[in-house]
Amino acid sequence: MNPVHLALIPGLPLAAVALNLLLGDRLGRRRVSWLACGAVGLSFMLAVRAALRLAGMPEENRSIVETLYTWMRVGDFSARVSFLLDPLSSVMALVVTGVGFLIHVYSVGYMANDASFRRFFLYLNLFMFAMLTLVLADNFLLMFVGWEGVGLCSYLLIGFWYQRPSAAEAGKKAFIVNRIGDFGFILGMLVLFVHAGSLDYARLFAVAPQVFAFGSAAITTATLLLFLGATGKSAQIPLYTWLPDAMEGPTPVSALIHAATMVTAGVYMVARTHVLFQLAPLSLETVALIGAATALLAATIGIAQNDIKRVLAYSTVSQLGYMFMACGVGAFTAGIFHLMTHAFFKALLFLGAGSVIHALSDEQDLRRMGGLARRIPWTHGTMLVATLAIAGIPPFAGFFSKDEILGSAFASGHPGVWLAGLVGAVLTSFYMFRLYILCFRGESRVSREAGHHVHEPPPSMLVPLVILAALSVVGGFVGPPMQEGGHAFERWMRPVFESGAGGAAAGHAVSHATEWVLIAMSVAAAGVGILLAFQIYLNQPSLATQLQQRWSAVHRVLFNKYWVDELYNAVVVSPVYRISQRLWKLWDEKVVDGAVNGVGYTLEGISSVLRLFQTGFVGTYALFFALGVLVLLFHLVRH
Amino acid sequence: MIPLSWPLLLSAVVFVIGLVGVLVRRNALVIFMSIELMLNAGNLAFVAFARQMNSLDGQVFVFFVMTVAAAEVAIGLAIIVNLFRLRESVFVDEINLLRG
């Protein structure tokens, strides 16, 4: 069979990076944008071709492994640079390249007036390379390369406007917080390697059931450590604090990295290693609980934020919580399904927000928006679609995936998780419609100056919005509920998720009647949130302030994000900082610098004597030479 | 037949003249000539010993020494010419950039 050239999928963006670096500013903006978008577009087509090839194969061996070369071989350990295409990685590759391509196109318009246009696309393409390596890798080590690569690009792009101190700080925060998670990831890999002797998915998953006893301490430790890595990358409790700050980056970056793709890497990783997680019920419970807690916590914070991008950031954290919730209750398909639909509507929300910010000359505060619906109708329309999708209103994409998560949580016997998800759904639709109303409806609170040049964005920004809106509408229909033998998406994913031990965990059947009730309840939850939002923010705008005063304590807690940042600062950051300061003064300045300077002073002392011999006169040297020869001769003659 | 000590004595005298010349003179050219003196003192000793011991080895060595001396002159003069171009001087006590 012909090779599919999987390496080209991440390879093309990397080639674009190289060209961009080599040709430099000689390219000019036009060609830079063609190069960057073209590479990702081609990657997308290759991913489509690969997925079609995969679909043409018989269901039971739907996976393609292509090895590029052996990276290293030490003893009986070897790591190969090889790529794995199976239903899971093909969905990820399609989402990453597809949504990524649209965001690249959008960025051409959004960044058109930025001085560092070329650098932006350089980083963006580098990110695509790293992300695609992450999802297509067929072993943990290569995945880790991608994992760190996306972290680096995230750092670079959050701090893209490095002249702003807040952006530089946010970049550092994201990097350092992620480092904690990555530490867990590395340790998790080590535990797996020590026990199973391999980091290749195929071998690891094949031997895992024999090596690890069900629920043993080793596998629980390994999976919990891996999950720690996931909490860092995917912004879950306790490492979620970097994501809201990451909104300092340009908005397309927030859409691409901090909503649609990179932050879902943790979910992908848990789904990819589901064989291991299913051997460790305790870890799965933890994943479900952390997911549910994060979904709730972030949703409550989202209610009280005023920055349009921060609301969306907390919403992302919350939605990622839903995905982990799904993985935790064993419904990996539902998690990946929500990952996909979320990529559509959250990317759309961010791009729409970017369009609003663009229209209002860089205004991000919801309190200075309002009444924009008629001024920018296309942006408004697409944003409304996305808001309905995330709120979970049928038939938009978010409804199907979120409903499936809630249904699985209920069916798998986690009523607590289900309830948290349901409450989260109310909150989600509430804060999303709060954002929508404050931004597009009601009285305009736009400042006079910004109000003058409110305008629709150029076509390069508008077209991606429309395409994403279409995907947000129809994207859910690959997985409608209550299909005999599972819906299309589930059937596509089945080869991946049923290979492992107890892979049928998602298949807890509930009767159709129960399912109808569950659907009705989640739709009702969304409806309640929407009604509340309309009542409070549109019909009686005074009610909002009244409520805020009545519940001022609650509002303060939410507005200040539960003081988690302050807590981390007090408990972790400042002690570390103080200890480092102490060590710096004591160890670095006294001991290390002392030793180095001491060596220097000693040598200088010795050489100040020795330099007397170096007169610079050849005659003197010759004299010493002659005297030396004389002494030698004398010595020889005497014996 | 003159005894071996005579040419050896002459060789030693020429060598010491050369050595003292290298040590005390300032002009690089004269130092150079002094070095040639030392080399030729060595040659003389070689020839004397060769004759004494009825062996051609010493005489052959002299040819090597002359060849090396010729090469050395070529390089040395080139250095001195360059030195003069740079510093307009061939006095070695004025060339002391490497003084510590």
In short, what is this structure?
The complex is a heterodimer of chains A (639) and B (100). Chain A is mostly helical.
Write the layout of secondary structure elements.
The complex is a heterodimer of chains A (639) and B (100).
Chain A: H1 8-23, H2 28-55, E1 64-74, E2 77-85, H3 87-110, H4 117-136, H5 140-158, H6 165-196, H7 201-211, H8 217-233, H9 242-245, H10 251-260, H11 265-272, H12 274-277, H13 281-303, H14 308-328, H15 332-359, H16 377-391, H17 397-411, H18 415-440, H19 448-452, H20 459-474, H21 488-497, H22 512-539, H23 541-550, H24 552-559, H25 564-610, H26 618-638
Antiparallel strand pairs in A: 1-2
Chain B: H1 5-24, H2 28-53, H3 57-87
**SS content category of chain A:** mainly alpha
CATH topology of chain B: Helix Hairpins
| Residues in helices of chain A, as a percent range | over 70%
Please give the most extensive interface between any two protein chains, plus how many residues each contributes.
Answer: A-B, 14 and 14 residues
Secondary structure class of chain B reads: mainly alpha
Count of helix runs of chain B? 3
What is the chain-wise order of helices and strands of chain B?
HHH
The global form of chain A is globular
Question: How many strands appear in the DSSP assignment of chain B?
Answer: 0
Main beta sheet strand tally, sense and closure of chain B? none
CA radius of gyration of chain B is 17 Å
Order of helices and strands of chain A: HHEEHHHHHHHHHHHHHHHHHHHHHHHH
Instruction: Provide the CATH architecture of chain B.
Output: Orthogonal Bundle
As laid out across the biggest beta sheet of chain A, the strand order is 1-2
Q: Tell me the fraction of residues in β-strands of chain B, as a range.
A: under 5%
What distance lies between the first and last C-alpha atoms of chain B, to the nearest angstrom? 54 Å
Binned strand content of chain A: under 5%
| Distance between the first and last residues' Cα of chain A | 87 Å
What is the average of the pLDDT values of chain A?
90
Helix count of chain A equals 26
Mean pLDDT of chain B: 90
